[in-house]
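Help! Submission page says 'invalid entity' but I think these are all valid:
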Amino acid sequence: MTDSVAPPSIAVTPVEEPTPPNLSRRLFARFEGVFNEEVFFLILSIFIGIFSGLAVVCFRLAIDWTHLALLGPLPQAHSWRLVEVPSIVGLVVAVLVIYVFPGIRGSGVNQTKAALYIFNGVIPFRTAIGKFICSALAIGSGQSLGPEDPSLQIGAGIASALGRWLEISREKLRLMAPVGAAAGLAAAFNAPISAVLFVIEEVIGRWSAGILGSVVLAAVSSVVIVRWFLGSEPLFRIPVTTFKNPAELIAYAVLGIVGGIASVAFAKSIGFLRPRLKALPRWTQFFQPALAGLIVGLIGFLGAPQVMGAGYESMDQAMHGQFVWKFLAVLAVLKIIATTVSFVSGTPGGMFAPTLFIGAMLGGAVGDVERIFFPHLTGSTGTYVLVGMGVLFAGFLRAPMTSVFMVLEVSGNYEIIVPVMVANTFSYFVSRSLQAVPIFDLLTRQDGLILPSLEEEREETILHVEDAMQPPPEIILVAQDRVDANYGRIQDSPESVFLVRLHPAGWSTITREQLQRLYLEGKGERTLASVFPAQPTPSLYPDLSLDSALRYVNDYALVPVVNRADSSQLEGVASRGSVFKKYGSRSTIEVPMAE
Amino acid sequence: MSWTLPRYVPRSAPVVLLILTAAAAIAFAGVGHLVARYNANQQSRGRKLYEQGLTAAADGQYDKAIAAFRAALTCDPNSPQYQLSLARALRDSNDPRRLEEAESYLLALWQRTPQDGAVNLALARVAAHKGNIDDAIRYYHNTMYGVWSTNYDANRTKARIELIQFLMKQGARNKAESELLALASLLPPNPAAHLQVAELFAQNQDWAGALAQCREVLHTEPSSGAALACAGEAAYRMGNYALAQRYLQGAVSVNPQDKQSREMLDTSDLILRTNPFRSHISDAERNRRIAAAFAQAEKRLSECAQNNGADLKTLAPTTPLGALQVRWVAVKPDLARLRLAAETDLPDTIMDVVFQIEQQTATICGAPQGVDEALLLISQRREASSQ
């Protein structure tokens, strides 16, 4: 079924066109030997990390302070405060989102990606401020959302503002958003490697070596800042995790399958409800966050205050076997409901923490149930909780590499890498087979945008030269041979262009007419090299992408494809016709449809 | 809103970097100030919650204490004091699922300060709750040799005593004995401490060790009623009734209300008066005691049969009491031969029947009193010494 595509919610604020890069030139004019834009950009990345780290520290304080002020240090069930606070704050947030900070709905990941690919790297600073205030209010009041994605957007917003302030070139300005995003996410998660990988997998959407250095520098510097102010304590107290018997991988695979199904249920519920709520009359948007707050508050009131807010304390408790499996399963289901309503209501906030929460609870529940049936399993509840986190990350966010490194970075334990990889792989494939479009892509498509994604790239078949090349021609002329000998070779051939092997190395081409003319001019007894000024033809290698052949096939009738180890060994030839024929054999534009 | 560098700022990379550095420094200082204020507020709030938790824990309201300590930790997540208190409350709440969490907190603390006595003691208690003897011994030992801010010696002794009690509870008597010996060797010259250790020796059935500790007290306080009673009981349990009599007489004279010592003294007197195997008594006295014990055994057998609604004369020899009666009747003629010195095994043969009757009737008819109790104890002592 194809849902109606709702109007874009991503900030379609008038794009501030960066002023021409006059400053860029002047910046480096006097220090050309010391600074160039590349070096400056790397240094700037450190500052982006510092400023983003400072912003995230403030953001975390703001969430904590809001939580303490509104809900108290440890909310208990059956307190009406749990119902009142998120509802009332939901109304306030709705007013702010509609009147003051339009475009801050949702998590912020897609907005950052859109800034990179559509808005020339521009994220209005107002968006970052709005995200800060509204997310802190929403998460602090108990909405079931996390602080990581907003931190990512805040970091990207700061980076973008800094880039515009410095009037850097448009090319570099585009890259500022992902650099800031990595810094923001790394600071929020206290996990630089995961942040870098996530930004590559989800924000940039493709492997790009050019930006990697800046992203890493920004992520590391922001983590240093956060650890300076907030300490280096991990998000959780990691219990003793063990993996002794390889047969237990079956148990983790089961967890992966269950997690994959849960991921799909979570993603589909968001994908189903979000466009429908957005399609409701505008006045309802004032009440949607409040209604979401009411539902989440009621869940807390009725006995599960653990689902409110980011839920890191509860994950910590689950990791230490504080809950029985039935309660863990209930918490996972309730968190899916709570996060779905919070997110689809347009309340600003992230999905990272809820995803980890659901995975943690599900992992604990599945692990405990498995141990009931197979008491010899040695994995502790904490191990299953940790693996479960990665499972949901892989299945729901569809960031398989990030999911593995995230668990390793958060736990600091490499012993569980195999269970994590097995479970995540199962979860990822179950999720992919049941839901074609990853959640972030689904959200952007619902907003009417199509942005590149690494998953798309992974699935894309890349054409290589070898796919289009033809076998080596039967007749190959030799530049060191006499013209009449070469002419004799082509007499029975229907071809009009021939490859010429040059001495000592290289290739060229000659047409039938050119060779015939030389022969008729009486130059038959001389070598071809002496009478024909050879113009070497560029060579291709079979493994090169077919796109690289396009550069030559227009100018050269035949392009030799040679062996990388021995350039004199001809593997085949590429021509304009063969290349175009290959491109023509497959649909080049596939416009994905929203689910 | 313009987001570009003001026109009057010189355009060069070093200047821009200088401005960024200055801005970062100012922002750093600002955030530092903010974080410091926030932390101060949080610490104050955390302290209040922590005190609430301590009060609740002292009242045995562990759920309330746990909630308060958790809340305190949200204010100051790195506070070792809060973590330790939460771990203790989790451990003491008697919920096995909470032990894991308690251990996790404590292990995190231990990794930071492995020499901390309080942390090691808490970990030892968790191990003790889990019945993990090796871990408990390890952490209790760490506690004893760990760092304490105050009362190092007292805490060290308390930790060893706790370990001994745990080991005894687990039935690890040999390990407990080793710890007891170590404890005894390090005790300060403190009567109360010696008596406490004597009590531990007694609990571990090590009566010689207990007697030694009680004698330590008697060296400095010869008229200590508690020490006399303790030594008397130890000697009594060891079967040294003459020594027991001496100490118990002292204990009863110091504390006439000491009923237990009085009872043991009476029994000791009886044993000393009825034991035919006591050294330094004449043959005539020995024979008299054997005859009296033999008659008492018959009486006990008869009473036991009556209590069971049976008559000795009509009891079948296949029943336990009937079999005893048959043996008693069979040996009775031997009494007359006691006077013949050549019959060296005869006293043992007769007393074997007596002891058998006392032991079996104790099993069938319950613990005996008076002379029967004395005969039973003599029989047990004989058995123990012959093994």
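Support: the input was valid. A stray whitespace character was the problem, and the output above is from the cleaned input. The longest strand of chain A covers residues 497-501.
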